[in-house]
Specification:
With about 100 residues, the chain is α+β, with helices and mostly antiparallel strands. The protein contains three helices and four strands. It is globular.
Amino acid sequence: MAIDRGLLAILEAKVGKGEELAAFLQQARDLAVAEEGTVTWYAFRLGETTYGIFDTFAAEDARQAHLSGQIPAALGEVGPTLLASDPSIQRVDIVAVK
């Protein structure tokens, strides 16, 4: 299986909402585990209010399924409460994997 594509999402929490966003991301892990086409899924913190998600896929249909799946839907529901702005979501091409 060649892991050659991914998604990088940067999330900026509202002031005072960072821990709630972290808790949401921890719960979202279970949704990612249930996705057959998602090879890896990471949630991380870059700063007090800046968080991110990075996930990888071996096929474009898996990436598309993820983008229209439960995690983006759940993020859309909590976004107005937790996020200072819309997430920055970038498609990435993976050039090397260990």
